[in-house]
Input
Amino acid sequence: MTDRESFQKKILSIDSDASFNALALALFREQSEKNLVYKEYLNLIGKHSADVSHYAAIPCLPVSFFKTQRVSSIAPAELEAAAHSIVFKSSGTTQLERSTHWVYDALWYEKVTSEGFHRFFGPISDYVIIACLPSYYENKESSLLYMVNHFIASSKNNLSGYYDFEGDDLEYVVTESRSQGKKVWIIGVTYALLDWADRNKKITLDESVVILETGGMKGRRKELVRSELHERLKNGLGVTKIYSEYGMCEMLSQAYCFEKEEFEPVPWLRFGLRELNDPFSNFQIGSGVIQVFDLANIDSCCFLETQDIGQRDAGGKLKILGRLDNSDIRGCNLLYQT
Output
Protein backbone atom coordinates (compact mmCIF):
# COMPACT_ATOMS: atom_id res chain seq x y z
CA MET A 1 0.00 0.00 0.00
CA THR A 2 1.41 3.41 -0.99
CA ASP A 3 1.52 6.40 1.37
CA ARG A 4 -1.27 7.97 -0.65
CA GLU A 5 -3.47 4.87 -0.37
CA SER A 6 -2.76 4.67 3.36
CA PHE A 7 -3.79 8.29 3.81
CA GLN A 8 -6.97 7.76 1.80
CA LYS A 9 -7.83 4.76 3.96
CA LYS A 10 -7.40 6.88 7.10
CA ILE A 11 -9.76 9.53 5.71
CA LEU A 12 -12.53 7.02 5.00
CA SER A 13 -11.98 5.45 8.44
CA ILE A 14 -12.50 8.66 10.45
CA ASP A 15 -14.67 7.83 13.45
CA SER A 16 -14.18 10.71 15.88
CA ASP A 17 -13.62 14.46 16.09
CA ALA A 18 -10.07 13.78 17.22
CA SER A 19 -9.18 11.68 14.18
CA PHE A 20 -10.84 14.23 11.88
CA ASN A 21 -8.94 17.08 13.49
CA ALA A 22 -5.59 15.30 13.23
CA LEU A 23 -6.01 14.56 9.52
CA ALA A 24 -7.41 18.03 8.80
CA LEU A 25 -4.38 19.69 10.38
CA ALA A 26 -2.02 17.39 8.46
CA LEU A 27 -3.74 18.27 5.19
CA PHE A 28 -3.72 21.96 6.08
CA ARG A 29 0.04 21.91 6.61
CA GLU A 30 0.56 20.10 3.31
CA GLN A 31 -1.85 22.15 1.20
CA SER A 32 -0.64 25.45 2.65
CA GLU A 33 2.68 24.66 0.95
CA LYS A 34 1.81 22.63 -2.14
CA ASN A 35 -1.35 24.46 -3.25
CA LEU A 36 0.10 27.69 -4.60
CA VAL A 37 -3.26 29.48 -4.84
CA TYR A 38 -4.13 28.60 -1.26
CA LYS A 39 -0.60 29.44 -0.11
CA GLU A 40 -0.82 32.91 -1.63
CA TYR A 41 -4.27 33.43 -0.11
CA LEU A 42 -2.94 32.53 3.34
CA ASN A 43 -0.02 34.91 2.89
CA LEU A 44 -2.35 37.74 1.90
CA ILE A 45 -4.53 37.29 4.98
CA GLY A 46 -1.52 36.74 7.24
CA LYS A 47 -2.36 33.19 8.35
CA HIS A 48 0.13 30.34 8.72
CA SER A 49 -0.19 26.68 9.64
CA ALA A 50 1.70 27.25 12.90
CA ASP A 51 -1.12 29.55 14.04
CA VAL A 52 -3.76 26.81 13.88
CA SER A 53 -4.36 24.00 16.38
CA HIS A 54 -7.95 23.04 15.49
CA TYR A 55 -9.57 22.50 12.10
CA ALA A 56 -12.36 25.00 12.85
CA ALA A 57 -9.76 27.80 12.79
CA ILE A 58 -8.34 26.82 9.40
CA PRO A 59 -8.91 29.65 6.88
CA CYS A 60 -11.28 28.67 4.09
CA LEU A 61 -10.59 29.56 0.46
CA PRO A 62 -13.60 31.23 -1.25
CA VAL A 63 -14.95 28.91 -3.97
CA SER A 64 -14.91 31.85 -6.39
CA PHE A 65 -11.18 31.16 -6.85
CA PHE A 66 -12.15 28.02 -8.79
CA LYS A 67 -13.48 30.30 -11.54
CA THR A 68 -10.18 31.99 -12.27
CA GLN A 69 -7.42 29.80 -10.82
CA ARG A 70 -6.32 26.18 -11.01
CA VAL A 71 -6.81 25.25 -7.35
CA SER A 72 -4.61 22.18 -7.00
CA SER A 73 -1.98 20.73 -4.69
CA ILE A 74 -0.53 18.76 -7.61
CA ALA A 75 2.03 20.25 -9.99
CA PRO A 76 0.41 21.14 -13.36
CA ALA A 77 2.52 18.72 -15.43
CA GLU A 78 1.83 15.83 -13.06
CA LEU A 79 -1.87 16.66 -12.91
CA GLU A 80 -2.28 16.78 -16.69
CA ALA A 81 -0.31 13.54 -17.14
CA ALA A 82 -2.21 11.59 -14.47
CA ALA A 83 -3.87 8.45 -15.79
CA HIS A 84 -7.21 9.07 -14.08
CA SER A 85 -7.39 12.85 -13.86
CA ILE A 86 -10.67 14.54 -14.71
CA VAL A 87 -12.04 18.08 -14.81
CA PHE A 88 -15.38 18.94 -13.23
CA LYS A 89 -17.19 22.19 -14.03
CA SER A 90 -20.16 23.81 -12.35
CA SER A 91 -23.26 23.84 -14.51
CA GLY A 92 -24.29 27.47 -14.04
CA THR A 93 -27.49 28.96 -15.40
CA THR A 94 -25.98 32.12 -16.91
CA GLN A 95 -22.95 32.98 -19.05
CA LEU A 96 -20.90 33.68 -15.93
CA GLU A 97 -17.53 31.96 -15.79
CA ARG A 98 -17.94 28.45 -14.44
CA SER A 99 -15.99 26.93 -11.59
CA THR A 100 -13.42 24.34 -12.64
CA HIS A 101 -12.17 21.60 -10.32
CA TRP A 102 -9.13 19.66 -11.49
CA VAL A 103 -9.38 16.21 -9.91
CA TYR A 104 -6.15 14.21 -9.87
CA ASP A 105 -7.78 10.81 -9.47
CA ALA A 106 -11.35 10.11 -10.62
CA LEU A 107 -11.14 6.65 -9.02
CA TRP A 108 -10.78 8.34 -5.63
CA TYR A 109 -13.94 10.36 -6.34
CA GLU A 110 -15.74 7.12 -7.19
CA LYS A 111 -14.54 5.59 -3.92
CA VAL A 112 -15.63 8.61 -1.87
CA THR A 113 -19.11 8.80 -3.40
CA SER A 114 -19.62 5.04 -3.11
CA GLU A 115 -18.63 5.08 0.56
CA GLY A 116 -21.01 7.96 1.18
CA PHE A 117 -23.85 6.12 -0.57
CA HIS A 118 -23.18 2.99 1.48
CA ARG A 119 -23.26 4.87 4.78
CA PHE A 120 -26.65 6.44 4.10
CA PHE A 121 -28.42 3.87 1.93
CA GLY A 122 -26.52 0.59 2.07
CA PRO A 123 -24.71 -1.29 -0.74
CA ILE A 124 -25.27 0.10 -4.24
CA SER A 125 -25.64 -3.48 -5.48
CA ASP A 126 -28.91 -3.71 -3.52
CA TYR A 127 -30.46 -1.03 -5.74
CA VAL A 128 -31.68 -0.27 -9.22
CA ILE A 129 -30.53 3.30 -9.93
CA ILE A 130 -32.96 5.55 -11.81
CA ALA A 131 -32.02 9.08 -12.87
CA CYS A 132 -33.87 11.95 -14.51
CA LEU A 133 -31.42 14.83 -14.88
CA PRO A 134 -32.28 16.55 -18.19
CA SER A 135 -30.71 19.90 -17.32
CA TYR A 136 -27.40 18.17 -16.55
CA TYR A 137 -27.07 16.25 -19.81
CA GLU A 138 -25.73 19.37 -21.53
CA ASN A 139 -22.89 19.64 -19.00
CA LYS A 140 -20.75 16.59 -19.65
CA GLU A 141 -18.27 17.85 -17.06
CA SER A 142 -20.82 17.74 -14.22
CA SER A 143 -19.58 16.01 -11.06
CA LEU A 144 -23.18 15.00 -10.25
CA LEU A 145 -23.59 13.35 -13.65
CA TYR A 146 -20.28 11.51 -13.18
CA MET A 147 -21.39 10.29 -9.75
CA VAL A 148 -24.74 9.04 -11.03
CA ASN A 149 -23.07 7.29 -13.98
CA HIS A 150 -20.78 5.56 -11.49
CA PHE A 151 -23.74 4.48 -9.34
CA ILE A 152 -25.55 3.11 -12.39
CA ALA A 153 -22.49 1.09 -13.42
CA SER A 154 -21.89 -0.11 -9.85
CA SER A 155 -25.45 -1.40 -9.50
CA LYS A 156 -24.70 -3.91 -12.29
CA ASN A 157 -28.36 -4.06 -13.22
CA ASN A 158 -29.75 -3.60 -16.72
CA LEU A 159 -32.75 -1.73 -15.32
CA SER A 160 -30.51 1.05 -13.99
CA GLY A 161 -30.24 4.09 -16.22
CA TYR A 162 -31.73 7.41 -17.28
CA TYR A 163 -35.47 7.83 -17.70
CA ASP A 164 -37.67 10.78 -18.60
CA PHE A 165 -40.34 10.09 -15.95
CA GLU A 166 -43.00 9.97 -18.66
CA GLY A 167 -45.02 7.07 -19.99
CA ASP A 168 -45.06 3.69 -18.31
CA ASP A 169 -41.30 3.08 -18.10
CA LEU A 170 -41.05 3.85 -14.40
CA GLU A 171 -43.98 1.63 -13.55
CA TYR A 172 -42.27 -1.25 -15.33
CA VAL A 173 -38.86 -0.58 -13.73
CA VAL A 174 -40.24 -0.34 -10.18
CA THR A 175 -42.36 -3.47 -10.62
CA GLU A 176 -39.52 -5.44 -12.22
CA SER A 177 -37.05 -4.30 -9.55
CA ARG A 178 -39.34 -5.64 -6.84
CA SER A 179 -39.61 -8.96 -8.64
CA GLN A 180 -35.79 -9.15 -8.51
CA GLY A 181 -35.77 -8.33 -4.80
CA LYS A 182 -34.07 -5.00 -5.48
CA LYS A 183 -34.67 -1.63 -3.91
CA VAL A 184 -34.95 1.46 -6.12
CA TRP A 185 -32.92 4.67 -5.77
CA ILE A 186 -34.39 7.53 -7.80
CA ILE A 187 -32.59 10.84 -8.32
CA GLY A 188 -34.28 13.61 -10.25
CA VAL A 189 -34.39 17.33 -10.86
CA THR A 190 -37.12 18.88 -8.77
CA TYR A 191 -39.48 19.95 -11.53
CA ALA A 192 -39.41 16.47 -13.11
CA LEU A 193 -40.23 14.84 -9.78
CA LEU A 194 -43.13 17.26 -9.26
CA ASP A 195 -44.45 16.55 -12.76
CA TRP A 196 -44.26 12.84 -12.00
CA ALA A 197 -45.98 13.27 -8.63
CA ASP A 198 -48.82 15.25 -10.23
CA ARG A 199 -49.62 12.56 -12.75
CA ASN A 200 -48.60 9.44 -10.80
CA LYS A 201 -51.66 7.19 -10.64
CA LYS A 202 -50.25 3.74 -11.24
CA ILE A 203 -47.18 3.15 -9.10
CA THR A 204 -47.51 2.29 -5.45
CA LEU A 205 -44.24 3.20 -3.77
CA ASP A 206 -43.00 1.99 -0.40
CA GLU A 207 -39.92 2.19 1.82
CA SER A 208 -37.92 0.15 -0.70
CA VAL A 209 -37.94 3.21 -2.98
CA VAL A 210 -35.58 6.09 -2.16
CA ILE A 211 -36.36 9.40 -3.88
CA LEU A 212 -33.71 12.12 -3.93
CA GLU A 213 -34.29 15.60 -5.36
CA THR A 214 -31.46 17.78 -6.62
CA GLY A 215 -33.13 21.16 -6.09
CA GLY A 216 -34.00 23.90 -8.55
CA MET A 217 -36.89 24.42 -10.96
CA LYS A 218 -34.89 25.76 -13.95
CA GLY A 219 -37.71 28.24 -14.58
CA ARG A 220 -40.20 25.42 -15.14
CA ARG A 221 -42.14 25.95 -11.91
CA LYS A 222 -42.37 28.38 -9.01
CA GLU A 223 -39.55 27.89 -6.52
CA LEU A 224 -40.61 26.25 -3.26
CA VAL A 225 -39.05 26.07 0.16
CA ARG A 226 -37.73 22.58 0.79
CA SER A 227 -40.34 21.67 3.43
CA GLU A 228 -43.22 22.47 1.07
CA LEU A 229 -41.53 20.67 -1.81
CA HIS A 230 -41.02 17.51 0.23
CA GLU A 231 -44.63 17.49 1.42
CA ARG A 232 -45.92 17.78 -2.14
CA LEU A 233 -43.64 14.99 -3.31
CA LYS A 234 -44.53 12.72 -0.40
CA ASN A 235 -48.25 13.26 -0.94
CA GLY A 236 -48.03 12.82 -4.70
CA LEU A 237 -45.76 9.78 -4.68
CA GLY A 238 -47.04 8.05 -1.56
CA VAL A 239 -43.74 7.87 0.31
CA THR A 240 -42.86 8.96 3.85
CA LYS A 241 -39.40 10.38 3.09
CA ILE A 242 -37.82 12.53 0.41
CA TYR A 243 -34.05 12.88 0.40
CA SER A 244 -31.90 15.81 -0.70
CA GLU A 245 -28.20 16.02 -1.45
CA TYR A 246 -25.76 18.84 -0.74
CA GLY A 247 -22.69 18.98 -2.89
CA MET A 248 -20.89 21.07 -5.48
CA CYS A 249 -18.25 20.67 -8.15
CA GLU A 250 -15.56 22.12 -5.86
CA MET A 251 -15.96 19.37 -3.25
CA LEU A 252 -15.79 15.60 -3.65
CA SER A 253 -18.00 14.62 -0.69
CA GLN A 254 -21.74 14.89 -0.14
CA ALA A 255 -24.19 15.42 2.68
CA TYR A 256 -27.74 14.02 2.64
CA CYS A 257 -30.96 14.96 4.40
CA PHE A 258 -34.38 13.34 4.71
CA GLU A 259 -35.99 15.04 7.69
CA LYS A 260 -36.12 18.45 9.38
CA GLU A 261 -34.30 19.86 6.32
CA GLU A 262 -31.01 19.02 8.06
CA PHE A 263 -28.07 17.79 6.01
CA GLU A 264 -25.86 15.19 7.66
CA PRO A 265 -22.28 15.02 6.35
CA VAL A 266 -20.19 11.91 5.82
CA PRO A 267 -17.57 11.43 8.60
CA TRP A 268 -14.74 12.97 6.57
CA LEU A 269 -16.74 16.16 5.95
CA ARG A 270 -17.50 18.93 8.44
CA PHE A 271 -19.38 22.20 8.19
CA GLY A 272 -18.47 25.53 9.73
CA LEU A 273 -19.79 29.09 9.53
CA ARG A 274 -18.61 32.67 9.37
CA GLU A 275 -20.36 35.97 10.00
CA LEU A 276 -22.09 37.49 6.96
CA ASN A 277 -20.19 40.75 7.35
CA ASP A 278 -16.87 39.44 8.67
CA PRO A 279 -14.94 37.00 6.45
CA PHE A 280 -12.58 35.93 9.24
CA SER A 281 -15.00 35.23 12.11
CA ASN A 282 -15.24 31.44 12.14
CA PHE A 283 -17.71 29.69 14.44
CA GLN A 284 -19.51 26.37 14.69
CA ILE A 285 -23.08 26.86 15.91
CA GLY A 286 -25.65 29.35 14.62
CA SER A 287 -26.31 30.96 11.23
CA GLY A 288 -23.87 32.35 8.69
CA VAL A 289 -21.96 31.71 5.48
CA ILE A 290 -21.29 27.98 5.09
CA GLN A 291 -17.73 26.72 5.19
CA VAL A 292 -16.84 23.14 4.29
CA PHE A 293 -13.93 21.05 5.53
CA ASP A 294 -13.88 18.24 2.99
CA LEU A 295 -10.92 15.96 3.61
CA ALA A 296 -11.66 14.05 0.39
CA ASN A 297 -10.24 17.07 -1.47
CA ILE A 298 -6.72 15.82 -0.79
CA ASP A 299 -5.38 16.98 -4.17
CA SER A 300 -7.04 20.40 -4.41
CA CYS A 301 -8.16 22.31 -1.30
CA CYS A 302 -10.02 20.78 1.64
CA PHE A 303 -11.03 24.07 3.21
CA LEU A 304 -13.60 26.06 1.28
CA GLU A 305 -15.97 28.94 1.85
CA THR A 306 -19.18 28.57 -0.15
CA GLN A 307 -21.64 31.22 -1.29
CA ASP A 308 -24.45 29.55 0.65
CA ILE A 309 -26.04 30.64 3.90
CA GLY A 310 -26.93 28.03 6.49
CA GLN A 311 -27.61 27.13 10.08
CA ARG A 312 -25.52 24.54 11.92
CA ASP A 313 -26.50 22.75 15.12
CA ALA A 314 -24.32 21.34 17.89
CA GLY A 315 -24.43 17.89 16.30
CA GLY A 316 -22.87 19.13 13.07
CA LYS A 317 -26.01 18.98 10.92
CA LEU A 318 -26.70 21.81 8.51
CA LYS A 319 -29.86 23.55 7.34
CA ILE A 320 -29.59 25.47 4.07
CA LEU A 321 -31.14 28.94 4.23
CA GLY A 322 -30.28 30.42 0.83
CA ARG A 323 -27.58 32.12 -1.24
CA LEU A 324 -25.41 35.15 -0.64
CA ASP A 325 -26.47 38.30 -2.48
CA ASN A 326 -24.83 38.67 -5.90
CA SER A 327 -23.64 35.04 -5.96
CA ASP A 328 -24.22 33.11 -9.17
CA ILE A 329 -27.05 30.59 -9.13
CA ARG A 330 -25.80 27.07 -9.78
CA GLY A 331 -27.52 24.48 -11.90
CA CYS A 332 -28.16 22.56 -8.68
CA ASN A 333 -29.34 25.69 -6.92
CA LEU A 334 -30.89 25.92 -3.50
CA LEU A 335 -34.58 26.24 -2.83
CA TYR A 336 -35.89 29.52 -1.53
CA GLN A 337 -38.97 31.65 -1.94
CA THR A 338 -38.81 34.72 -4.16
Notes: The chain is about 35% helix and 25% strand. The first strand starts at residue 61 and ends at 62. Confidence is low (pLDDT under 50) at residues 329-338.
